[in-house]
Design brief:
- This protein has 160 residues and is mainly α.
- The chain has one domain (2-159).
- 85% of the residues lie in helices and 0% in strands.
- It has six helices and no strands.
- Helix 3 (38-61) packs antiparallel against helix 4 (65-93), helix 3 runs antiparallel to helix 6 (130-159) and helix 4 (65-93) runs antiparallel to helix 5 (99-127).
- The longest helix is centred in the C-terminal third of the chain and has 30 residues, at 130-159.
- The radius of gyration is 17 Å and the shape is elongated.
Length: 160
């Protein structure tokens, strides 16, 4: 709805490209950096996600499909890297006998974490404009990324 409502693009194929730019790039990002250690995946993901969201917000306030797609792809890539790092960490730290249970809980929490924010964003667009809702969502992503980066830095300092 944002592509049609805020960027005023009426072609349904472009709406599909916008969705793919988040989800497809997220999946692709999980397959590419097989050799990267989890810390690098976390740093890359925690950097790419808020920068991508910032580009999406900019694209809505200064209408640009290019910036919107770029921001969506960057945020999607960051989310994919974060998912891969978290999954790898869960498997690496799980007791071998409990790996299946750890993965079950991981995916249950991950699905809630991936499902609730878009639902809240969609609900927010009914209360305020799409631009304001996406701006607030982007600020929330930035705040969560900053807190997560701080926790990650603290954990690395304790290990070192």
């Amino acid at each position: 709805m944002i592509v049609r409502g805020e960027l005023h693009i009426a072609q349904p194929v472009v709406w599909g490209v916008a969705g793919f730019s988040v989800l497809g790039v997220s999946a692709l990002a999980q397959t590419l950096p097989a050799a990267l250690p989890p810390v690098r995946l976390l740093v890359a993901g925690l950097s790419a996600t808020p920068v991508g969201m910032a580009l999406v917000v900019v694209a809505l306030y200064h209408p640009s499909l290019t910036w919107y797609l770029l921001g969506s792809a960057l945020a999607g890539a960051g989310a994919g890297l974060l998912f891969k790092a978290a999954l790898g960490g869960a498997v690496a730290t799980a007791d071998p006998a409990a790996t299946a249970g750890v993965l079950a809980v991981f995916f249950a929490v991950a699905y809630v974490g991936m499902g609730v924010p878009p639902i809240l964003l969609a609900a927010a667009t009914h209360a305020v404009s799409d631009r304001v809702a996406v701006l607030v969502f982007g600020v929330a992503v930035l705040a969560v990324s900053a807190v997560a980066a701080r926790f990650q830095a603290g954990a690395r300092e304790r290990v070192s």
